[in-house]
Amino acid sequence: QVQLAESGGGLVHPGGSLRLSCAASGRTFSSAAMGWFRQAPDKEREFVAAISSSGGSTAYADSVKGRFTISRDNAKNTVYLQMSNLKPEDTAVYYCAARITPYYSVYRTSNDYRYWGQGTQVTVSS
């Protein structure tokens, strides 16, 4: 069982930055591939970024590539999403997700993940 708790959301002006954190409980974090997803009002949940259990592989949605960076600290059981040059269209609830896996893979679809956090709101507005 993995419990996830996101933090770091808030209101930011266009062009600004935020860093989201996702703290995980349990001893299996180092075996968990992690992902960030987001859901805007009246839209489907969409993939944002993913990282393998070792941190050696990452993947990004085209819409955030070059602006967002996913990273993890297995000693702290935490995954991060550094967001820069934020745009109004980045406004959404951001969720982190975990999948326990023996493989060093990244996963891009929500069905790949078993465990989910409650989400943190990010609002980009002037």
Summarize the structure.
Helix content is 0%, strand content 47%. With 126 residues, it is mostly beta strands.
Average pLDDT reading: 96
Supply the number of helical segments: 0
SSE class? mainly beta
Give the amount of beta strand, in percent. Answer: over 45%
Task: Describe, in plain words, how this protein is organized in 3D.
The chain is mainly beta and 126 residues long. It has strands at 4-7, 10-12, 18-24, 32-39, 46-51, 58-60, 68-73, 78-83, 92-100, 115-116, 120-124. Strands 2, 4, 5, 6, 9, 10 and 11 form a seven-stranded mixed β-sheet that branches. Strands 1-3-8-7 form a four-stranded antiparallel β-sheet, with no helix packed on it. β4 and β5 form a beta hairpin.
Descriptors:
single chain, 126 residues, mainly beta, seven-stranded mixed β-sheet, four-stranded antiparallel β-sheet, 47% strand, globular
List the helices and strands and how they pair.
Layout: E1 4-7, E2 10-12, E3 18-24, E4 32-39, E5 46-51, E6 58-60, E7 68-73, E8 78-83, E9 92-100, E10 115-116, E11 120-124
